[in-house]
Amino acid sequence: MIHYKTKAEIELMRESSLLVSKTLSEVAKLIKPGITTLHLNDVAEQFIRDNGGTPSFKGYQDYPFAACISVNDAVVHGFPTKNELKDGDIVSVDLGAYKNGFHGDSAYTFALGTIPEESQQLLRVTKESLYKGIEKAIAGNRVGDIAFAIQDYTEKQHGYGVVRELVGHGLGRHLHEDPQVPNYGKRGTGAKLKEGMVIAIEPMINLGTKDVYHDEDGWTIRTHDRKPSAHYEHNVCIQKNKADILSSFAEIEAAEKANPNLCSTYY
């Protein structure tokens, strides 16, 4: 069942979504070689709580952390650890915050120091594909129009692997609601998009194969060929002519550019 939101509820969701964005910007200020992903997780959790929210992920289906932090060949759901990050790592940080009865859920991928040109392009194209999907997130279109836009750009035009096992989703009072929003599919198929729907669009794109597997921890999902993966996510409210993006990358990008330990020149 798809839950449509009122204008008042959408504004509450915007607040939750922007809390996640601000938390990601705090991560962007701190992330560097030598820091542990467990420390970043703790900082993110504290920031969410200090700003009146609770971490959406912690305890969800028994997930033990506030953040999913996935490094290099880890696609999503990576466990924060005491391992130190190093120059050349690609780090996806996925966060959720619950506030005022609604969830926000956003993700951003960071590049530490110097990374290969092919990895720079992967991040750039994945981020661009998110906005190409958002362009199709308007009333009257269908979920398949979003999915096709992402797949066409990443897989057909650039030859990347589009993960099939993981998809975007509806968002609201529950962290995962209908409809599912795949990053692959056919135009004109799937649920019809209507005003008041809020969805999380999140391309998960691999440099190599689309195939993935579960790590020993039961949560972390890795690329089968061990090549890197990128992940970006926005919360989007369906409107008539143009999608309303409830989350924001503006503060994250500003912090990213100000952090000398991050590579952000390729955007």
Structure explained in plain terms:
- With 267 residues, this protein is α+β, with helices and mostly antiparallel strands.
- It has a single domain, classed as Creatine Amidinohydrolase (Alpha-Beta Complex).
- 30% of the residues lie in helices and 23% in strands.
- It is built from five helices and 15 strands.
- It has helices spanning 7-30, 37-50, 117-135, 143-156, 250-258; strands at 54-55, 67-71, 74-76, 90-99, 102-111, 161-162, 168-170, 177-181, 198-201, 204-206, 212-214, 221-223, 229-231, 234-237, 244-245.
- The strands form four sheets. A five-stranded antiparallel beta sheet has the order 8-7-9-14-15.
- Helix 1 (7-30) runs parallel beside helix 5 (250-258) and helix 3 (117-135) runs antiparallel to helix 4.
- The radius of gyration is 17 Å and the shape is globular.
- The protein starts with 6 loop residues before the first helix and ends in a 9-residue tail after the last helix.
- The mean pLDDT is 97.
